[in-house]
Each structure stands twice: as C-alpha cells, then as structure tokens.
Amino acid sequence: MIINRAFYREAAVTTLAMAVVLLIVMTMMNLTLLLGRAVRGGTSENVLYILLGYQMLGKIDVLLPLAFYLGVLLTLSRWYRDNEMTVLAACGVGLTHFLRPVMLIGLAMGLVVMAASFYTTPLAVRQIEKVKTESSHRTEPDQVAPGVFTESSGTGRIFYAEKIRGNGELEGVFVSSLEEGGRGVLVAKSGHPFTDAKTGDKFMALKEGTLYEGEPGAANYRILEFGVYNLRIEPKMIAAPLVPMEGLPNMALLGQLGNPKANAELHWRLGKTIVLFVLAVFAMVFAYTDMRRGRMSNLFVAIVIYFVYSNLLGIGETMLQNGRVPPAAGLWWVHGGMGLVAAYLLWRRLRNRPLFSLPMRLKRA
C-alpha cells in the first residue's frame, strides 16, 4: 500500500536522523568526561578513543528506543500538521491503520535492540573494564601525557614531558622521585623506553641531562651531568579485571537467578526491547498536533512520559536488586502499568476525547 510505504520511508529516515543526533550528543558528553581524565593524566589519548568507542557501543540499546520513539512521533506529527492525516481520515484511513506499520517497524528495531542488550552491551562493558585495568597497570612512560605532570602509583615518581613523538620518544623530560637520601630530580633533553634483551627489565634511556640528588644545601647534595642515563622502570602485575553485573554473559546470569542483582539485570536487558512497543503506542497518542495549542505541547508531554517511564524502570530495578519486589514480578509491573496507560490514552484519542479531562466541578470553578 502506498500509504504504508510512505510511512515506512519517512519514519525510517526520521528515526535514523534522531539516532545520529542522539549519538553525537552522547558522544560529546562522554568525550567531555574522558578528556577531563586525560587532562589529569589518568588516560592516554589512545586509550581515550578506545574507551569512547566501547562506551558508544554500549549505549546502542538505550539510544535506539528513544530514536524510534521520536522518529514515529515526529513523522505522525508532521502528517497531522500538514493535514495529511485529516485527508486520510476522510478516505476511511484512521489512526488505527498505522498501528500495524508502527509495530512492524518496532519489531525490526526490537530485534536490533535485543541483540545489543543481550550481547553487544555486556561485551562493551567487559572490554571497558579490561581497558581500564590494563591502563591502570601501564608502565610509567606509557602513562605520560604531553604537558601534564603524571604521578606513578606505587613508585611515587612524577613524570613530565613537553612533547611525545609518534615513535614514543619523549622530549623535554622531567622525572622526580623520592630517594633514601632525599628527593632526586632528573632533567633530560630526550628519552625513550627500551627493554633489556637479557633480563627483560624495562628502562627509560634519558639523554643529555642533569641529575640532582639530595636536599639543596645539604652535605650530600650533588649535581651530575650525563650523556645517557638508564632509569629502571618498575614492573607492574596486571590483575584480572573485575566484571560488573552489567557485563556478565547471559548464561552466567542465568546460573545466578537466585541472586537478586542477576535477576534484575536479566529483566533490565529484556525490558529494553519491551520499552519499544510501549513507546510506539505513546508516540501514536501524542502525535496529534492541535495548532491552537501550539506544536510543542504534545511533544513536551511525550518527552515527560519518556523520562517518567525511564525513571520508573530505574526505580524498579533498584527495588528488584534489593529484594523489595518478588523475582517473578521483575519489571513487568512497570511495563504493564505504562502499557495500560498508553492503551487507555490511545482509546481516548481514537474517540476524539481529550487525553486528560478534568472533573466537571473543576471545570466550572
């Protein structure tokens, strides 16, 4: 049917546009947080981009339902605004006709969200924890960011480099460490890390610099000029990353159904797909645009409904984790309640009744 094809095409394009916009917004928000860590010397540039990629991969199952909701809402709103829905209604094609196309798009989108929720997001969480663990156990030269004083955990050394070349060579190197006889300071023109072929120990070869040892003014204070100074890099043991509940595979969660947190995580993953269909009904309800009340009135209410739904799911998950909700109930009470509200509002919309009617006594007042 021509009407269905037109709706599929416009809804798909609008949903894709919303997904791109939301992805850009979420990327900028996460990038801002990661850049703050990088400026403080906690994350190198390469690790930053890897973390950003995995974080965005883990947001797909949250981003797509909202993009689909806005896509359907904006598509039908435009049809109402341009009187296309009025013309279709005069031809016997009402709002109920679009229920099937909307649900078919939701089904296709739901398969993608389900795959992301059950497989992609947990994988992204595990990879993020792995990268963070490896990053925290990097050797001292690998932690250095250009123009930033970086303190190495464990050794207490402070590293600084004005510039880092692509081959890993550092320029304008400053190293401060606390020794038995006082604080030692190394200043070198350049330096590069290397591994001893015989022992496997790692060193930083500092070239054309000065070593300051002891406390200034003390008898043991001395200044040494050097051509090459090999600074030993203390090795670090890499521990296995601690995987949070959000990153556990599905089979691992199924094996812990007696654990309220595992049960809550399973319901949370499943709920991201169910949300799609409930939001689809809400989108059809709030798509109607009354030009006398303005174009944004229903859109504002639709956004409020989305945040109410999201917050209820968050509250429900917390209650499920704490054992305040029976495991069998899961998050179904949230989906069921919001689904009933959506169905009731759609019923009122189909009968051309106001969605939120006040009692007669309040109207008279």
TrEMBL record:
The keyword Transmembrane helix applies. It is found in: Cell inner membrane. It comes from the Bacteria. Its main location: membrane. GO terms for biological process: lipopolysaccharide transport; transmembrane transport. It is a multi-pass membrane protein. InterPro entries: LptF, LptG/LptF_permease. One of its GO terms (cellular component) is ATP-binding cassette (ABC) transporter complex. The chain crosses the membrane at residues 12-36, 56-77, 98-119, 266-287, 299-316, 328-347. Keywords: Cell inner membrane, Cell membrane, Membrane, Transmembrane, Transmembrane helix, Transport. This is Lipopolysaccharide export system permease protein LptF. The lineage of its organism: Bacteria, Pseudomonadati, Pseudomonadota, Candidatus Muproteobacteria.
